[in-house]
Design brief:
The complex is a heterodimer of chains A (116) and B (113). Chain A is mostly beta strands. Helix content of chain A is 0%, strand content 49%. In chain A, strand 7 and strand 8 form a beta hairpin. Chain B has 113 residues and is mainly β. In chain B, a hairpin with a 4-residue loop joins strand 7 and strand 8. The chains are: A mainly beta (116), B mainly beta (113).
Chain lengths: 116, 113
């Protein structure tokens, strides 16, 4: 079964450092997403991406964050200068199409980011 | 605006017993509703979804959920729990035309032998 793969599974970084989290969405999917889950809290929407541009973003997704699809397969989330509160599990997801009905997302296993 | 409330962060059931995980939603538009499951060290896997067709939705692994508009609920049930059902379960809502899923806090299900 097709799956979304994420690397690294766990990254530890120092506060102020740049971090790039990588995702390979399902190959025929057109919409890509990042969500995050701070320990003990809800899974939160960060950003959605379609046709090489951001289609929606949340208040969390400030200027410290950026997304990119550098080639035909990878989808990355960059945090420019990490803060302690960026420590979380980051989930990448993709979907085939928004369509009229519900948009079913396929999620990756997550990348755990620990900021010291 | 949409929101989801999952009652009970942790639910324990005996093997073979009924599983009931509660989810209530708030939505200003007709909602699409989802249950996802997360096994340890794995991603969020779709269990089932409600998309305004039948109100009783059957999913994978014997789970089902019923959409009750009058109660704004979408509770997840399984008649007989299995050890392999131990995982964290997330209820989520989205509205037509939105890319976003709004998740609940999750309910961790433990199954006691």
């Amino acid at each position: 079964e097709p799956e979304v793969t994420q690397t690294p599974s766990h990254q530890v970084t120092q506060m102020g450092q740049e971090v790039i989290l990588r995702c390979v969405p399902i190959s025929n999917h057109l919409y890509f997403y990042w969500y995050r889950q701070i320990l003990g809290q809800k899974v939160e929407f960060l950003v959605s991406f379609y046709n090489n541009e951001i289609s929606e973003k949340s208040e969390i997704f400030d200027d410290q964050f950026s997304v990119e699809r550098p080639d035909g397969s990878n989808f990355t989330l960059k945090i420019r200068s990490t803060k302690l509160e960026d420590s979380a599990m980051y989930f990448c997801a993709s979907s085939e199409a928004r369509g009229v009905g519900a948009n079913v997302l396929t999620f990756g296993a997550g990348s755990r980011l620990t900021v010291l | 605006a949409q929101s989801v409330t999952q009652l009970g962060s942790h639910v324990s059931v005996s093997e073979g017993a009924l599983v009931l995980l509660r989810c209530n939603y708030s939505s200003s538009v007709p909602p699409y509703l989802f249950w996802y499951v997360q096994y340890p060290n794995q991603g969020l896997q779709l269990l089932l979804k409600y998309t305004s067709a039948a109100t009783l939705v059957k999913g994978i692994n014997g789970f089902e959920a019923e959409f009750k508009k009058s109660e704004t609920s979408f509770h997840l049930t399984k008649p007989s729990a299995h050890m392999s059902d131990a995982a964290e379960y997330f209820c989520a809502v989205s509205g037509a035309g939105s890319y976003q899923l709004t998740f609940g806090k999750g309910t961790k299900l433990s199954v006691i032998p």
